[in-house]
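Minutes, project check-in

Agenda point 3 was the complex the collaborators sent over. CS summarized: two entities, 338 residues total, and the question is how they sit relative to each other. Sequences were read into the notes so everyone works from the same version.
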Amino acid sequence: MGWLFWETVAIGAGTYLIRALSLSGGSRIRWPDAAKTWLSFVAPAVLGALLGPLVFLSGNHWVPLLHNPTWMAAVPTVIVGAVSRNLLLTVAVGVGCFALIRQFV
Amino acid sequence: MTRPSIAKGLRDALPIIFAYFPVGATFGVIATSNGVPWLIVFLISAWVYAGSAQFMLLSLALSGTSPVSVIVTTLLVNLRHFLYGTSLGPAFSKWSEAQRWMMAFGLTDEVYAVTSSRVQQARPVVGYQIPFVYSCYGSWLAGTAVGATIGKSVPVAVSDALGFALPALFLALLMAGKRSLSYFVAAMVGALLACLADMAQLGNVGMVFGAVVGATAGTLLEKRRIDRQGVRH
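CS then shared the predicted structure for the full assembly.
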């Protein structure tokens, strides 16, 4: 376990430096318009990349939609999110739907 | 710091707080049940504060991988945070260096997702951002401490239902965004590539690849739309 302490220290320091130096550097640079446009699309692309595997896969395998409670709960969640644009309400409805669907699927 | 901005920060943090607690607890349970001392488990959550990287560190370290390989592999997974800082940077240009470094510590996937949505609406203020970031961190630490202490007695039904909190939050953020064709194409390309990479067992490489190619696809489509509008006028 001795190494685990030093691995933790090194990984924590490295992670913090990646986060802090990129935020600090990103705020000083004057970005050209093309770069600003590209950066504005990073957020939806990251959200998609986070969501895809969470919703459609389980253990690196595709889950058929009729046997996929995450996908089934995602549908009402998207509708509530689109209509309300309220984060907390959308998450609450989503978790409630997921708990309900898990009773049957 | 004003009360309304602190309250807004805490309100925006609530979905993440609910989502982080069970995941932090799961980490605590797995780590202690594999013989990692309580203090080291807590230190990992307090100092690394990056969910997937923590699970990866644990799994690699426990499987006897060399320390250099553990450090390099885990930091490669966390390199995606470079995109987050770079894309948020311009919105934080009025902040002092110390404030940016304080904020950067808590820049996780979920904090980035909410922050990038909020900075589209208004310039970030310290009174909102710091309570938002550190209440999420507090939930992660509390979850880890509880998980490491009580072990395997967290009710399965509760942690199972809360497992949907993160996908629900990401969906809510996606629907709170721009809602243009190029915006959704960026998300769909990101999702498709991340899924394909996961199915090919490429791990977090798919997330970075999906983010970069998705953002590029969205940018190209947006440029085409603007060019077409220019031709019409």
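Noted in discussion: Residues 3-177 of chain B form one domain.
Follow-up: revisit at the next meeting once the mutant set is ready.
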